[in-house]
Each structure stands twice: as C-alpha cells, then as structure tokens.
UniProtKB/TrEMBL annotation:
The lineage of its organism: unclassified sequences, metagenomes, ecological metagenomes. It comes from freshwater metagenome. This is Unannotated protein.
Amino acid sequence: MSDNEVERRSRLLSAKLAALMSQQMGIDVSTYTAEPCGLGTALVSDEAVWILVDGDASRSLGPAIAWATKFAPSLHLVVDNHSGVLARRASGFATSISVWHLEDTRLLAAIAEPHRDAVTPSAAHATFISDIASAGAEPLVEWGVVVGEVRGLEICRVVDDEHTGEARIEVGIGAHDRETFALVHQERPIDESMRSVVDTVGAHRVKGAPFHPYNHLAPERFTRWSALQTPSALGFVSLTQVDPPEMRTNVKDSVPCVAVGVDDSGNTTAVVFVHGIDLDVVPFAVDAALQHSCAQVMIVSRPQDVVASHRVMAGATLAATTFSSLS
C-alpha cells in the first residue's frame, strides 16, 4: 500500500476502534489519543491502551505489551482471530491485559482456549522411528508427527501416501524439498537416501562452520539439540524435548522450540529456545509453561537478542522467567 493508503486505513481503523469503545463499552473516547501502531491502530489514555490488530493476530500479544507499556498500565487487545490463544497467554501475566474478540461489530470478552491434548503417532508411523535412527538421524515426535532431524534440522518425515493411505518416509527439508527429492531419487533405497542426507547435513551443522543453508535453517533447534546433549550447561540434570504450544507450520521459518528441564531438586522449567529478536517469545514461553505445568520459564537465546522489552515482560509473568544462553 502507498503511504496515503496506509494513512487512510489507519484513520478508518481508529474510527472503528473509537466507535467500538464508545458504543459497546460506554467509554468516553475524548480522553483518548490516537497513536500510530504497527499492529493496526491504538487509542491511548493515562489509564489504558486499546489496540485493534489489523490482520493475523497470532503473534501480536508480545508486541502489543511492549508497545503499550510506554503509555499506560492496562492493555486491551481487540482481535478478530486467535483470540482464545491470546487470552490463554494473557492469563500468564500479572499485569492487566484484556483480550476482546471482534465479531462483526460486537466486542466479546475472549475466552481462553485450552491447550490441545497431546497427540501420539499412529502405530504405522511409529514403526519408522527405528529406521530413522538406523540411518543416523535423531527421531523426534512433535504433535504426533514423526520426523528425523540432524542436529535440529528436519531431514525426513513420515507421511501417508495421498493415494494409497500407506505410511512412508519422505526425505527432504520441507514439503517442496521432499517432493523434489522423491522425483530425483525415486529409484534410490530410502535408507540409503537418508544416510546420504544425514552425512551431508551433519558436516554443516557444527559450531563455527562456514555459512551454508543447512546451518542457517532452524538455528534455535540446533541450540536445543546442543542443550539436550549437555543439560548441565543450563543447570539441569535432565532436559527433554516437548511439544510447543502451537504446531510449527513451516520447517524453514525460525520459530521457538521447547524442552522441559529438571533440576537437582526435581523442579521443572519450561525451556524455550529462540533465535533473533522475537517480541512475542515471552508470551510464547509463558504459554509453554502453562501447557507443561511448569512454575518456571527459561528463555535461551543469544545475548544480543534479549532487549529491554523482553525483560519488562519477563518481570510481569506469573511464572518466574529468566534468560540464558549457551556459550
């Protein structure tokens, strides 16, 4: 959109938010000031911030909290999607955060959506776990999906054939790569293909290796893999990979991943691994703690990726939240 179009849409959104607040909440919007906000639009007073999210709201809570703390202690987040997940994550903060679901022209208090039940792989899929391990990859099950990773990078996945329904292993990094690999290497035994990819990828997934797509992808999962090898580096006697709060949809995007650590006193901590400055990682980590019934949270990242907003948010969580890094 052009600058004029962006400005016009911002004005429309501000008017829409003001009407919702006035007509449905009985708020005197004359005491509020419109402020430009990257999430959509915002109306601000000394007591509260109202933000109307324009578009995908799934990762809006962290940025909204970071933005709102500059103005007022109370945040009202208005969204028309993912409101249940956002309300659940907001419940992990001690500060005043209200999530509202926008349905047509009505504002409804969002109801926290429960976490989904854990999913186990089908028996047909689980039989391939030993094949993946035999090829030298690390078998991993996430939300019931069986995959093989090499130091945190997925190189194969168990899928059902779309025509026969029969379970099989596909080799490749992501759906498109698996499809291309199958076309190019269709005559090659699958175990041989996996071993070849394991060797190729493994040579690049090492600290200090020259830049390569294989060590550029999923850096947060490489960090988790490293921590799983030596839990004591983070102060744990054991560390176990667990499902994230929401299923990862794209292998090639860098998104946080999760483990649960146990210390020598038996206390459990939700450990979230992230790469890059991610303003939504604290709500994500709080959600992981709620999901796995942990009273503590540890966010593992590069030191340069932890900014002041992260520490402000961490100080407002109900679960004790700390930051750490692997040397």
